[in-house]
Amino acid sequence: MPLFFEHEVDADTRLAVWHITEEAPYFDVPLQRVISHPHKRLQHLAGRFLLRFLFPDLPLELIRVADTRRPFLEDDAFHFSISHCGDYAAAIVSRSRRVGIDVELPGERVSRIRPKFIGPAEDLRLRGWADAMQPAWADTLLWSVKEAAFKWYGKGQVDFRHDMPIHLVLQQGDHHFRFGLKFGKEVQELLDVSGLILPPLCLAFVASPVNDGFRGY
Predict the structure, then answer these.
(1) Is 183 left (phi over 0), alpha (psi -120 to 50) or beta?
(2) Would you call 126 helix, strand, or coil by DSSP?
(3) Are residues 117 and 197 in the same domain?
(4) In whole angstroms, how far apart are CA 208 and each of 9, 67, 148, 174?
(5) 33, 67, 96: which is the final residue of a domain?
(6) What are phi and psi of 202, to 5 degrees?
(7) Which 3-state string (H, E, C) describes 56-121?
């Protein structure tokens, strides 16, 4: 079973990353829309499979898809987010927290567009946080952190530079960081987003409510 990574955030919240090596029939889960591209369909199947892997009682057949392409359950019995990149799929599920997740394969493309999602003042605050990391990895992790926050919000129409600047980075271990984002779209909340380096991937996730350690920053 190619379970790549698994983490229990708390008793109500779990996440996992799956390395996709199987064919589509292995997953045997429903999709809410027709996906003709074989690999994209495989990614989506793996994501739905992970939801049930994390919480077997999550009713996949009741999932709806919003206009913003965010999947959800109408009764909010579970909050969940899915991401996929290359041959990997990731999912986070919670009974009590709003969540977002993103997984990325690092590359130079993200470094080229860095000025589009990191503003000048933010860039100054981030100086030195990743001196021991290759730029492509650092930039991809920053992008992933903001993507996870974007999915947490779930309503679209967010400016990555202006609506979610990073104000704080704390290193939790060699490959684990916590980012404090001043999310300024309606909620104006300081989000606590975790970012992990899991070669060959960058992974970021958020599960509100906000961690008390960031309050008042």
Answers:
(1) beta
(2) coil
(3) yes
(4) 11, 23, 12, 24
(5) 96
(6) -110, 135
(7) CCCCHHHCEECCCCCEECCCCCCEEEEEEECCEEEEEEECCCCEEEEEECCCHHHHHCHHHHCCHH
For tokens 């591209």, name the residue. 37
Q: In what order do the strands lie in the sheet with 88-94?
A: 3-10, 13-19, 88-94, 79-85
**Structure confidence at residue 70 (pLDDT):** 85
Write b or e for each residue in 122-134: b if 16 or more Cβ atoms lie within 10 A of its Cβ, otherwise e: beeebeebbeebe
- pTM strictly above 0.90: yes
The residue with tokens 């993103």 is 102
- Pair (123, 55) in one structural domain: no
Tens of pLDDT, residue by residue over 119-146, are 999 999 999 898 889 999 999 999 999 9
Retrieve residue 39's tokens.
């690999």
Task: Based on the fold, state whether residues 92 and 108 are members of the same structural domain.
Answer: no
Q: Are residues 106 and 196 in the same domain?
A: yes
16: enclosing H helix or E strand: strand 13-19
Point out the domain boundary residue: 52, 74, 96. Answer: 96
pLDDT digits (tens, 9 = 90+) for 59-101: 999 998 888 788 899 998 999 999 999 999 999 999 999 999 9
- Whether residues 79 and 167 share a domain: the answer is no
Q: Say which residue the tokens 């889960």 belong to.
A: 29
